[in-house]
Amino acid sequence: MTASDGTDAAKKRRLLILDDEPIVVKRLKPAFQKAGYEVEAFTDSAAALAAFEAAPADIVITDLKMEGLDGIGFLDRIKAVSPKVGVIVITGFATLETAKESFHKGAFDFVAKPFKLADILDVVTRLETFLGSDHAG
Question: What is the rounded CA–CA span in Å between residue 114 and residue 72?
């Protein structure tokens, strides 16, 4: 059975990581590849947006504060392209206001830096469950 609409359970979920700090990208990318994801990582929001528009990912992890298009603007743009994309916002500048705005714009979760690798993997696992139930019906 071939499914081009993404219903093939064996299909790897595509994950896009965007953070203007190269160390964060360098830390997250191999961890998610090891967990079985197809990962694209960016330190530039314009490049990440162009890549997402060309081939939308299933899950996006984005930093909040960046030069140019910030995380909230990026979230807006990718949700316009793919409303079902699961988005996790990470930031070193966590406030109640920015968390509320992220959720209002459609983020699944909001994670403050510094975070443990296990914590971000757990959030993505919860998001996977949520996306699975969302697609089930």
Answer: 19
pLDDT tens string 13-62: 999 999 999 999 999 999 999 999 999 999 999 999 999 999 999 999 99
Peptide bond into 22 cis (omega under 30): no
Q: What's 41-103 look like in SS3? A: EECCHHHHHHHHHHCCCCEEEEECCCCCCCHHHHHHHHHHHCCCCEEEEEECCCCHHHHHHHH
User: What pLDDT band is residue 134 in, cutting at 50, 70 and 90?
Assistant: low
Contact 22, 42 (CB under 8 A): no
The span from the CA of 50 to the CA of 58, in Å, is 15
Contact present, 119 and 137 (Cβ < 8 Å): no
